[in-house]
Each structure stands twice: as structure tokens, then as C-alpha cells.
Amino acid sequence: MAKKKTTLPKDFEELLSTATFQELKDIFNKCDVDARGGYGKQTALAYNSCSHELAKWLVEQGADLHAADTWGNTPLHNRSRSRLGNIESLLLLGADVNYRDNQNNMPIHAAADAHQIESTRLLLAYGSKTDALNSNDNTPLEQALLTCRNIDIKATTEISKLHLKAGVGITTKMKKLVAEIGKQFEFHRANFNKENIAEFDLALDELYKIFGVEPVGKRVLHDGKSQIEIKGKTWQEQHQELWELLVPSNGPAETIQGEIIRVTGRIANELEGNGGINWDADYKKMTDKFIELIKQGKQLPDGELLEAEEIIIQIKQKNGDTARLCELGVKWVIDNPVPVKLSPVDYKR
């Protein structure tokens, strides 16, 4: 008997939607029931379009319900991430709801990461643990809160209610994560879709109430005309205050003052937070723009201006004191409190 193939047909995902049940079964006359396909080398059971009829037949033929892909994800992990995953099919066939991937994530962590309400509901109904920690020491609910983007707020609120109803206790860590969700929402409020912002506001208010978190104040951007005034005592406090006051949620600032703060913050975040992985020509243009801008208006003392230029030389090599650059940027803004409109820039970051 010829050895069966270990790789699924390249168009297997399409065939799941177009082929008959018999035609799909015939594929496994030549392919092993645990043959792999797709970028992550997953088995047929991991595809969202795998019908319950086919899944049941595959398991009857000996397919492994817990066959892991490249990252250790079982079919239940993968399908829990999609609203089209139909995970109840796998659950009915006996998939382990508490199986761990390479990062100690259970399927309910995967559902939380993708903010899938129905997957979460089903996994809880089938006995998923709610207090298990992944490799980053996050419970499933903490994972949902940690990865919540603005667009996920409504789903995260519903997922939170499901977990709390299942007996999960509220922790200080969760409260901090909810506050951070609020901060991010307020920072980007000006650019949020005006047609549905009200429903996201309501969901966020409910999230605050559920976790007993004081709502984050609505963000008020500077008008671009009046004198810039700040209250912070340290340069770090001042930089954060200026960031919230002058920096838009995306694109360049309206004023020179705002762009100096934005550029220093973006550079610091890229080099210190991301290790320079996204560093490109645009970032180098931003460093040049910084020097150009601080040479306008009331300049820094000669010694500090020279220091800034030397830091920029080092930063272009993905080195240099980004904190000091932020501090010098703050000093220039404080010395130049009257807003100056920024001319168009030649970078997109």
C-alpha cells in the first residue's frame, strides 16, 4: 500500500466550500487524515469551513483532535479565534477545552485574544478553566483586556460579563487594564467613527462600571492657537502632558510644538519599546525634522543644541539617549509656548 501524503492539496480551503462530502472524503484516500496545509501547517480539523459531517468522519478515521500546528495550536485553538469557527462541532467530538499551546494558552485564551464572544460562551459552557495562566501570566479575561483595541470594546465588555458570571474575581491588574483601555479610547476619540461612537461610549461606560473603575476623562486637544500651558513638574510628566495635549491619534501634529513632542515620543517608543524593528527611512527623516524644528524660535543654548545633534547622529544608528532627546524637546516647547503651525512633512510615520 502506497504511503499517504502528509500535505493537503493547496486549494483544500476552497474545496471545503465547493466540493461534495464524497469528494472531500476521496482526498483522504491519498492524504493522511492528519495531513497538514496552510501557512501554519494545520490539519483539516482546524479549518473554519470543515463541516461537522466531515470532522466527525475524520475523527472516526483516526484524525487527532489535538494535532498541533507550527505554534502548538490545536484545531480548537485556531477555530476559537474566528466568528466562523463553529467550535461546537469540535467540542461535541471531544476536543479538550483546556489543552495548552506552546505559550500555555488554552482555547479560551485564543478566544479572548480574538475577542470572540460566542467561542468564549461555548468554551465556558464546556468546562474551560477560567483561572489558568499562560506564559505571560495572564488569565483568559486578562488576555481579553490586555489585547483590547478600540474596535474590540463592545466584544470585550460582553466577554468580561461571561467570565464574571462564571465566577472570575476582579483583580487590581484587571482594573489597570480597563483604565488603559479607556486611555487609548480617549486618545483616539477625535478620529473615531462619528456614526457609532455613541455605542462604544456606552460599552466603555459599562466596562468601567463592571470593574469599578473611575472613567477616564474625555480628551481635550489644544486649539492650536492659545498659549501652551502645562502643570507637570518633571520633564517626564511634562512630555506626557504635552503628548496628550498636542499629539493627534495619527499623522503629524498641527503645530511645531506638537510635532517635536510626537517625534521624540515615536522615536523613543520605537527604539526602547520595539528594539528598532520598524526603523526605516521615515524615522531618519523624523530625526532630521526634529533638529530643523528646534532651530526655530527661541533656540536651546548652544551646548544643548550641539548635544541634541550628537544624540540624533547616534539615534540614526539605532542608538543614543532617547530620554534626553525627549527632555530637550520638552525644554524647547516650554521656551516656545506660542503655537506655530507645522508645514507639511516628508514622512508618513
From TrEMBL:
Native source species: Mucilaginibacter celer
Protein name per its UniProtKB record: Ankyrin repeat domain-containing protein
Classification via InterPro entries: Ank_Repeat/CDKN_Inhibitor, Ankyrin_rpt, Ankyrin_rpt-contain_sf
Coiled coil: none
Domain of life of the organism encoding this protein: Bacteria
Keywords from the UniProt entry: ANK repeat, Repeat
Residue spans of the ANK repeats: 103-135
Keyword Magnesium carried by entry: no
